[in-house]
Write a structure and sequence with these properties.
heterodimer, A: 254 residues, mainly alpha, MetI-like fold, 2 domains, elongated, B: 383 residues, 0% strand, flat, disordered N terminus
Chain lengths: 254, 383
Amino acid sequence: MKQNIFNGAKGLLLPLAALAVWEWASRQGSGAAYVFVPVEQLAQGVAELLRSGELWLHLRASLTRTLQGLLIGGLLGIAVGTLMAQSRVADRLIGPLFHSIRQVPLLGLVPLLGLWVGSGDAAKLLVIVIAAFYPTVLNTSEGMRRVDQSYREVGLMLTLTRGQTFRRLLLPAALPAIVTGVTHAQAFGWLACVGGELLFAAGPGIGSLLVNAEQGGRMDVVLISVLAIALLAQTMNFLFQRAAGLLVRGRSTL
Amino acid sequence: MSTNSVIATQPRSPQPSHSPSSQQSLPLPPQPMPPQPLPLPQPQPPQQQSLPLPAPAPLPPSPQQQSHLPSQQSLPLPAPALLPPLPQQSLQQVHPLPLPLPLPLPQHVGQPATAPGRAPSARAGLVARWLAWRWSGWTSPLLLLALWSAATSLGWAPEQILVSPLQVLHTTWELIESGELRQHLEISVLRLAGGFAIGAVAGIGFGLLLGLSPGLRAYTAPTFNVLRQLPSVALIPLFILLFGIGESFKIFIVVKATFFIVALAVHDAVAGLSERYIEVARVYGFTRWQIVRRVVLPGIVPATLTGVRIALSRSWMVLVGAELLAADSGLGQMMEMARQMFRLDIVMVGVVLTGGIGYALDRGLRWLEAHLMRWQRGDRENT
């Protein structure tokens, strides 16, 4: 990235050209202006959304939903992943179901969830929980399985109880893998949140804002929402990776 | 295991030597013995001579001398010439031993890992046998199926929530019979194939150029990196506005989902190629085109295939999402219509099908990956 600073001017050329084309297209009659919103109208749209607090309202709803889903899905995922790694019986029972359900694309599950839990907040939350669940389970069980046998033997020698073995031995040893899983879960969770809000009934949430704007033909709002989603995805990714780095600092990665 | 059996064989070596014939020929053994570096074997024969029952005697020292055991084991080796009956007997006696051994051992080894406190009871034996059973992986799916059938036949849940497995099968058959399923399936797969082909080819081409040409990178990389961050799912409404809800929007969303993943994978693969390969190629006087063809292209195959596989499963998800949101045909639309009409059976058929297609595509590409990379397996067989 740093060497790009030197080439920054070159890199700006393409976006500027695109902007010019966009602006030119927006002046080609009202039909084109419907799609290619003039730049000043875009700016007005942003200002309006920010001033009315609408954008914040939707973003906050989506963010809290994502974090709730992450928390539930992540904890469930760690629990199930641990169970699958520790007990061969559980692995043999849960594994086949887990791996076959996992094959269904997440958004493909949406109609089924819609029939089962309605299309309200619960359904939207459930999509995020599932999205967060998959990578956490996979990484947790993988990380726990890779815990060195000698660690377990030390635990046996010290006659640790199961709880102690988990807390003192397995959890710290598998932490890097778990953190990787949660980082993936966060990325998937945010996408799932947007997807769920797009597909389920309207309510507060950035996805609902997006789909409403699309149906109302408000290209400016659509563009702003997409940019906000992408920006937040990046921000959350950055924050999670920072937090992950702090958590597993000084540990060798598995 | 190995130490145990070695220890167990040890006391047996003296036992056969009780036969008087072998003891008579004992004055000779010192001749083969000297090459043996161990002083230990020598004390043994005197013990055997003096005591008819020396069998336990060699046992006590053995734990400390485990390191010497292999050489002790080799004691029978010089002996056969002198004591023909010995190897036969020892073999006979060693053979039955490993059989009872595996039984107690797995309990020893397996217990700490799974259940520390469990006594080797009948239940544990049953569980172990179940775990060893080939089809044990089918237990939970079959249990779920049984539970599902029971729940529907006993009417535990209303029909909008749960339809019987038979009903789902019946609906599947109906959908196949009427040709409806085939139509939806065809259009979905066609969209995926079209968009994916365009996106993958363009992605490979652009990724290659991006990796090979610093000039192009300077111009396009920032834009590429920003656009890459836009999640495909969130772009569905934008694409609907831009391209309408016709076919082009679905194809474009698949192209977008594929292009960026593939292009990034290819670019990273090119950037990750060892500089040495290219230097060697230069030394050999390869032209630029030859370097690309002979060095770069073969080198990026593994990473490209991985990128393509991830892109395929991602774009399948995005396509299903797009069809759910706005389409007049396709698997996603079939499910969405069924949801609005509370036809849970059709939704379930759709869910199973989307999962099956996703799985098949992933499997197919994995197979292709393994097939194309089989030349590499020779070096990495042990890793």
